[in-house]
């Protein structure tokens, strides 16, 4: 019982330490090197804690670069930890050398029997039957596809329809018309989702296919490791044996001449054999600085599919699609509209905001409301909210309705003046953090009750009058663009 409690305490401390390292190192480094760490035993007599990684290469890499940081973090969390030892899992020590087939000489499919690196991780494609390249293990089990990132969970809109259709064509049974496919999108817009979705769909269409998914950074690390171990021939043979190559964040291969050359030759070899290649980056091929011209031409020779930032309609659809996971939790329509309008930098933040809001509501027993969203998502909302001023709103509304700017503060009550003024008050409340009295002062010193009446009136008119709703939508697009 005591041992079980100690194990639980260690696991809780590791969860806190890992979260802290994720903030310090960033999502990519943490996911590649820290997340795969498994807790070993803790010897109280020597004060030594064992941490295990799945391959010799990853264990050496983490020990060389992060051992001091890991030791300090553990000593802060548990003063009785005096030494942290990073090594390879005992069961993996026998894994070495390149095995080009099974012992009986029969090759089994790439996705048969692969071992996930962590509970819940996707299966590593091509890991089981091929083993590793020396200690590095290109294609070892830590490389996998996220089971939640499929075409079924990818919401399509005008901003991403080209990329989505091209990705589905790349994964189809018939050969794609364009190769390679290059997905270009800013952070959090869905390019990695499409990469994983292609892998899943391709396996459905080609069950015995051999798939390799990696980041450009991992490609370089594995290549350098093969160079050091004089195993470049095995590296090339293994890499070119895949049927589908998925490389994410290709911008990180910038400046690595030897890795660029090897990637260039790999592209040529795979395309010559009719294999499929998909790359993803946060910029167009022509904008990749420090990349050899020959490689740029290969990356852009197929189809460059651009994913634009999600517009308001797509953000609404994404939230509504995501809500299906949380049924029967009720999220009011005004909360969905608020999140869709406010969290507009990237889809990842949008979904994360919804997840956080619903989790908080479920764990505290509170109902999801607009007030709760404003209270609990302050960091995300403030980072996304563009500082729109009431003056800017008044100027835009006056231009839209062709009324003089002075009418916003005048006492005239003609309908041609009153309605634009009420619309401007409504937009001021929706798009700025100003209170009702503050808004009233910007409209000729009007009482806060006048502003409340205007906001409620426009809200009601939007539900009954399609023209009014269209006007407000047009103004919102202008102000948020």
Please specify the SSE layout and strand pairing.
Elements: H1 2-25, H2 27-34, E1 38-43, E2 48-53, H3 56-77, E3 83-88, H4 127-130, H5 161-171, E4 181-185, H6 191-205, E5 211-215, H7 216-228, H8 232-239, E6 244-248, H9 257-272, E7 276-281, H10 293-299, E8 303-307, H11 312-323, H12 333-342, H13 347-364, H14 370-376, H15 378-384, H16 390-401, H17 415-431, H18 436-442, H19 448-464, H20 466-480
Parallel strand pairs: 2-3, 4-7, 4-8, 5-6, 6-7
Antiparallel strand pairs: 1-2
InterPro entries: AAA+_ATPase, Chromosome_initiator_DnaA, Chromosome_initiator_DnaA-like, Chromosome_initiator_DnaA_CS, DnaA_C, DnaA_dom, DnaA_N_dom, DnaA_N_sf
Region (Domain IV, binds dsDNA): 362-481
Region (Domain I, interacts with DnaA modulators): 1-109
Task: Provide tags for this entry.
20 helices; 4 domains; GMP Synthetase, Chain A, domain 3; Rossmann fold; alpha/beta; 52% helix; 481 residues
Major sheet: 5 strands, parallel
- Percent range for β-strand residues: 5-15%
Examine the coordinates and then state which fold CATH places here, giving the name of the CATH topology of the largest domain: Rossmann fold
Number of alpha- plus pi-helical segments? 20
CATH superfamily of the largest domain: P-loop containing nucleotide triphosphate hydrolases
Overall average residue pLDDT:
80
Class of the largest domain, according to the CATH hierarchy?
A: Alpha Beta
User: In the CATH hierarchy, what is the architecture of the largest domain at level 2?
Assistant: 3-Layer(aba) Sandwich
Computed Rg? 28 Å
* String of helices and strands: HHEEHEHHEHEHHEHEHEHHHHHHHHHH
What's the number of structural domains? 4
Distance between the termini: 60 Å
Tally of strands: 8
């Amino acid at each position: 019982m005591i041992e079980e409690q100690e194990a639980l305490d260690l696991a809780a401390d590791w969860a806190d330490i890992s979260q802290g390292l994720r903030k310090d190192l960033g999502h990519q480094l943490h996911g590649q090197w820290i997340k795969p760490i498994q807790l070993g035993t803790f010897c109280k007599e020597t004060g030594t804690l064992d941490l295990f990684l799945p391959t010799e290469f990853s264990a050496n890499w983490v020990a060389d670069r992060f051992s001091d940081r890991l030791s300090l973090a553990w000593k802060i969390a548990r003063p009785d930890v005096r030494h942290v030892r990073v090594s390879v899992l005992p069961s993996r020590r026998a894994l070495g050398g390149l095995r080009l087939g099974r012992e009986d000489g029969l090759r089994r499919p790439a996705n048969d029997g692969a071992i996930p690196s962590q509970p819940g991780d996707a299966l590593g494609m091509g890991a089981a039957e091929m083993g590793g390249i020396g200690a590095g293990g290109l294609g070892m089990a830590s490389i996998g596809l996220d089971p939640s990132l499929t075409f079924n969970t990818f919401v399509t809109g005008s901003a991403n329809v080209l990329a989505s259709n091209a990705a589905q064509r790349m994964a189809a049974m018939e050969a794609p018309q364009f190769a390679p496919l290059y997905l270009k999108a800013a952070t959090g817009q869905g390019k990695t989702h499409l990469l994983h979705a292609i892998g899943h769909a391709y396996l459905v269409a080609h069950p015995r296919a051999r798939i390799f998914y990696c980041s450009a950074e991992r490609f370089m690390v594995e290549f350098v490791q093969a160079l050091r171990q004089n195993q470049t021939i095995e590296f090339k043979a293994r890499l070119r044996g895949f049927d589908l190559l998925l490389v994410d964040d290709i911008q990180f291969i910038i400046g690595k001449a030897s890795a660029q050359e090897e990637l260039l030759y790999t592209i040529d070899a795979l395309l010559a054999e009719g294999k499929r290649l998909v790359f993803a980056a946060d910029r167009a091929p022509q904008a990749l600085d420090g990349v050899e011209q020959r490689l740029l031409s290969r990356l852009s020779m197929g189809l460059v599919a651009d994913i634009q930032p999600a517009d308001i309609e797509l953000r609404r659809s994404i939230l509504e699609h995501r809500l299906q996971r949380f049924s029967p939790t009720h999220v009011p329509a005004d909360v969905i509209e608020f999140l869709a309008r406010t969290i507009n930098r990237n889809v990842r933040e949008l979904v994360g905001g919804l997840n956080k809001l619903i989790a908080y509501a479920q764990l505290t027993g509170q109902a999801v409301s607009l007030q709760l969203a404003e209270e609990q998502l302050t960091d995300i909302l403030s980072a996304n909210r563009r500082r729109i001023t009431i003056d800017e709103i008044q100027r835009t509304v006056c231009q839209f309705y062709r009324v003089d700017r002075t009418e916003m503060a005048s006492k005239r009550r003609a309908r041609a003046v009153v309605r634009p003024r009420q619309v401007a008050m409504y937009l001021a409340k929706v798009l700025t953090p100003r209170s009702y009295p503050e808004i009233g002062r910007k409209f000729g010193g009007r009482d806060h009750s006048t502003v409340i009446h205007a906001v409620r009136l426009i809200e009601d008119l939007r539900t009954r009058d399609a023209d009014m709703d269209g006007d407000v939508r047009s103004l919102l697009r202008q102000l948020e663009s």
